[in-house]
Design brief:
Largest sheet: 8 strands, mixed
CATH topology: Rossmann fold
CATH architecture: 3-Layer(aba) Sandwich
Length: about 230
């Protein structure tokens, strides 16, 4: 495996990604969108895990210059402008997709994106943008709706959700399902019982935020992602 830090551009911002390459050539590309904390070691490790599976794992930068928040207040201040301006959010993740397709060793006709928490929203908005990619996976992502491109949703959609997630109440889940159905998307939602937000992160145990690691949901969701990637590629 080879890893490297890369620089790429979106509108008016310099972005810094982290790429892990498998030994194989002409491999599928999988973007990884980070949590509200920024492009940290958590998503770097996911890129490496994906490379071990034979994919080019590309941990994208949504904040610019590889910025990582120092605490929850800074995390929120970094995320809020993008959640409030979904066109800017889509511009940054679409820019990452286009750059990723140009990376050496990537098969540009086999691309996908996954994301965690805030990054789950990012992955879903990439699908909503109508870009050409095979699929997106949201891990405990924010499921609030957004505008869908006139070209529609071309990517298959998999949402992996904690049933007890206080940041994604049942009303939001129901609205998301209706949005996907109305858009004619090929979509799935897996809901893990008794599971809270950030269930994939061993360090995310904050009762005030409603975050809690769940070993079985973490393992089941990663296996579901692998099954999904095998299907779409």
């Amino acid at each position: 495996m080879k890893t490297e830090t890369v620089s790429y551009q979106a509108t008016d911002v310099e972005l810094e990604g982290y790429v892990a390459f498998p030994d194989a050539e002409n491999a599928p590309l999988v973007l990884i969108a980070h949590t509200w904390a920024g492009k940290d070691e958590f998503v770097h490790k996911k890129a490496e895990d994906l490379a071990e599976l034979g994919y080019v794992g590309f941990a994208v930068d949504m904040y610019g210059n590889g910025k990582v928040g120092a605490d929850t207040a800074e995390n929120e201040s970094l995320m809020t402008p993008l959640v409030g301006d979904r066109n800017m959010l889509k511009d940054r993740i679409v820019s990452a997709l286009h750059y990723g397709k140009s990376l050496p060793g990537v098969d540009p006709n086999r691309t996908a994106a996954i994301g965690y928490c805030f990054g789950g929203l990012v992955a879903l908005d990439l699908a909503r943008s109508g870009e050409d990619l095979q699929g997106v996976v949201s891990f405990h992502g924010l499921l609030m709706g957004s505008d869908i491109s006139e070209t529609g949703i071309k990517a298959k959609v998999l949402a992996l959700h904690g049933e007890r997630d206080p940041m994604v109440p049942l009303e939001m889940v129901d609205a998301f399902q209706k949005e996907m159905t109305k858009a004619g998307a090929d979509w799935q939602l897996h809901s893990y019982g008794g599971t809270y937000h950030a269930f994939t992160n061993p360090d995310a145990n904050d009762p005030n935020l409603g975050t809690q690691f769940n070993k079985s949901a973490n393992e089941r969701s990663w296996q579901s992602m692998q099954n999904f990637l095998n299907e779409i590629f």
